[in-house]
């Protein structure tokens, strides 16, 4: 069994991903980070907005409950709950980064999927407490935050915005809860 990765290693992995993005996709400075272009062009993964997540090609099905996103490694696809995407576009971006985190961190030898049950925003009142979530989910969240809100861009942007969280959210294309949690981690 693999030991949980610590936040500095997760941050480093996300930074390496961003550093590997060809300049024609992202210049390393422009915001928001074009996460869907990175997933598509760098990884060759298809992002699908799906109205009925229970239709995932998974042996035995997904069962009940709300699924915000999932990774189908064998199909090279990230499925995003279409209703979530319509209602909360910044959360959609986080979900995509979270599932890419599973691809980067957890897919070796896996032909199964990784689900993101509940709401995708870490720290959301409706999310399970971090202590009760599987380590792989926590790791994917930390990776997603580092990818969506790169440290080398967040610190200067925080200074330019005078700490205005709403302005930072608009700049980075993320939710307030994700931004507040990320700011607390740097």
Characteristics of this structure?
single chain; 186 residues; alpha+beta; 4-stranded mixed beta sheet; 4 strands; globular
What integer value in Å does the Rg equal? 16 Å
Query: How many strand elements?
Result: 4
Characterize the biggest β-sheet. 4 strands, mixed
Strand content: 5-15%
Average pLDDT confidence is 87
Q: Specify the helix fraction band.
A: 40-55%
Order of helices and strands: HHEEEHHEHHHH
- Structural class of the helices, strands and pairings? alpha+beta
Through-space gap between termini: 29 Å
Shape: globular
Q: Give the low-confidence spans.
A: 118-128
Note the total helix count: 8
Strand order of the largest sheet: 1-3-2-4
